[in-house]
Amino acid sequence: MGRCQGLNNYRRLLKLSNTRRSYMPKALIWGESLVGSGHARVQSELARKLQEKGWEVSVITSSKAHTDHFDFGKANMIYQPQLKLKTPESDPYKIANLVTPDGKSLSTDMEYRKQRKEKLLNVYYDIRPDAIITEMWPYARANFDFELIPLAEAIKNDENRDLTPAPRLYSIARDIMFPPKISSPDSPGLNNDRHTIAYKYFKAGSIFARADKSIISLEASIGAIPEHLYQNIEYVGYFGYRPRQKDPDIRDETREVLVSSGGGVTRDSITLYKKSIAARKFSSFKNRIWRILIPHGCSTETLMEISSLASAEDSGGRIIVEHNRTDFPDLLSNAALLICHGGNMIVEAVSANIPLLVVPRQFAKNNLEQQIRARAFYDKGLTELATISEIDDPVYLAEKLDSAAKLPRSVFSVEHEGADRVAERITQHFIDKNKFMPLPGSLQPMKPVNWKQSNGLIIYKYKTVKKGRIGFGR
């Protein structure tokens, strides 16, 4: 920090201290949920964890249909005009498959892109956050380069100015990423090199991989990472629910079989529901209650169809079809077995030591995320695995279920507290940068060795000199 910038930062914070007893740092989270609601859940977990650390959080997204089903605490929710996939089966990585409110493709709707970019920049200048977190970008979401690169450039411009303290830019990367080869229209030319973008805009320790490196490393999907970028990336663990304790009052023989497609409904999800219902009578779990959990975004027609199949298969009501529930962590911890796709639910089931059959979605060839994740956990002996085509045979599916139940049960220590760690890292970076600032109780740093107190401020590496001037001591 230069002499002038440090002085101006001090004056800004001194002004804040005179109007508030302590300064509450501000975070802005950018994210989109294009297929399921898993990304919205990641954003909500981070929003809550940051609030617990004393942050004032804002979230900007166009995915209101997904974020409405999650608890963002007291976050300020800012919505862009909604984007939709052309069809539930469309590849979300292709910009032509993203449809704007006017029914146009994002790739051709120049006015929509302009409005989004301007709104995002206005939010940045209005809020003046201390930290900005982009979920998935830059190693994914290249379809949104048209607004995110200008945002990153605005941050860099502020870093070079004395009057405005610039925020730190962070990224939340998934365990499996497929860097896009094509950027969005209107984006500054960076040769579509995602490593170049990551190195240019993100500081050391600012790209958090929500992954457990002992199971999957980013290189498995992203390829070789340039050596100079290793310092920018930190593995923090998955974002997962803390395992709940089993209810001792539930007998083992009455524990339920859960079937879940996570937060999204595709053709593969509907196949999973139907074939699971058909396989029940061939399984050793045929006398138990089976609970089919369907996302809130599912159409009424699909929900009624699955419910009718369940009633026809078991008129006694022992196949329950209902929407996703907020108490899913408790349901999971008390389940006999889980059948699911290949998303983050794998982590939660393994952490809860629940037998698991994974049937990954079959997306386009450039989106093999679920297949790779499912195979990685299977290779560790933690799950049973089947493909969508294989479960077309209900007898085979029943055999796979029974095989999953017989796998040796041992609690495998999957790193699953990523949201806590990210909030801790961001908070610590903020404290290290602003050790002279009065902070809320949860953010208060220990007094450094070289400090002085003035007007309620802890001034780190600064000292007061004659006539009220500020000197910069070391």
TrEMBL record:
Superkingdom of the organism of origin: Bacteria
Segments forming domain Glycosyl transferase family 28 C-terminal: 327-410
GO molecular function: hexosyltransferase activity
SUPFAM superfamilies per UniProt: UDP-Glycosyltransferase/glycogen phosphorylase (SSF53756)
InterPro entries, A to Z: Glyco_trans_28_C
Protein name (Swiss-Prot/TrEMBL): Glycosyl transferase family 28 C-terminal domain-containing protein
